[in-house]
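FAQ

Q: What does a record look like?
A: Structure on top, sequence underneath. For example:
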């Protein structure tokens, strides 16, 4: 709270300073008198949304098009752009406040997952939101690990079924079939965050990783320093038995 309060103070000072500059017009307007709360147009949309004092002002600087997010528009969300995770096993596209600024202060976010045959949405955590997870094509086998002392939860989520991944839990999903699966995930916050467990854990030094598990960790004959960069990006290809069943060559 301290952080956002001081950020807001700094941002307000900046807004007042910039708004006084000649030739700075509200976004989408050619007339400074048309807005009750002028916002400097030379700032990014997200910065403008943070600066204005009310929700009404926020919607006044958002165009109708700013309120539309097309998950299926690959030109708007190319591979490698923020909010897009692409691996050998599929793709995730996430609308949060950084990729869809209209979500700022709306207390929600959403992701769509396109999981190929055997595709594996690798173990991860959302540090700042609960997740509702609905499968709308195919089925996905889900596992959740709660906090220390909590239990493991397993569910096969079929088409048009839904499950919950609590905030901070480690969870994963896996397509056990040779046909694609798709899901929609909604979050109880506009900045849910995402931390991939393997990348984070094996990002520690080899000595630390080995000490944490009580012995040297080897993958395909490589030590931690050797395999760290080879951890597959999400969405990964999936388990060996499924790849064999579906005749998918491991890349
Ligand atoms: C995908 O997005 C475009 C806009 O980018 C839209 O016109 C179209 O209807 C959408 N749906 C499909 C299935 O392509
Ligand atoms: C789904 O996951 C559970 C628990 O991990 C496992 O026992 C089961 O065999 C899996 N089912 C399929 C079809 O992969």
């Amino acid at each position: 709270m301290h952080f956002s309060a001081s950020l807001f103070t700094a941002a307000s000072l900046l807004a007042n300073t910039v708004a006084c500059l000649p030739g700075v017009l509200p976004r989408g307007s050619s007339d400074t008198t048309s807005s009750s709360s002028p916002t400097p147009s030379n700032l990014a949309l997200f910065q403008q949304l943070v600066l204005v004092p009310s929700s009404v002002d926020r919607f006044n600087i958002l165009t109708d098009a700013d309120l539309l997010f097309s998950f299926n528009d690959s030109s708007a969300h190319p591979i490698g752009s923020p909010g897009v995770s692409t691996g050998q096993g599929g793709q995730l596209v996430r609308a949060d406040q950084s990729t869809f600024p209209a979500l700022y202060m709306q207390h929600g976010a959403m992701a769509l997952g396109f999981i190929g045959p055997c595709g594996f949405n690798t173990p991860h955590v959302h540090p700042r939101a609960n997740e509702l997870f609905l499968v709308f094509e195919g089925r996905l086998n889900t596992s959740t690990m709660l906090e220390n002392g909590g239990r493991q939860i397993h569910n096969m989520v079929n088409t048009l079924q839904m499950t919950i991944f609590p905030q901070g839990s480690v969870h994963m999903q896996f397509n056990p079939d040779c046909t694609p699966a798709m899901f929609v995930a909604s979050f109880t916050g506009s900045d849910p965050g995402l931390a991939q467990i393997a990348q984070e854990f094996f990002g520690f030094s080899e000595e630390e990783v080995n000490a944490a598990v009580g012995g040297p960790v080897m993958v395909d004959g490589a030590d931690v320093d050797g395999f760290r960069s080879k951890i597959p990006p999400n969405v990964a290809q999936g388990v060996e038995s499924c790849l064999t069943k579906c005749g998918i060559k491991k890349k």
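Q: Is there anything notable about this one?
A: Residues 1-36 have pLDDT under 50 and may be disordered.
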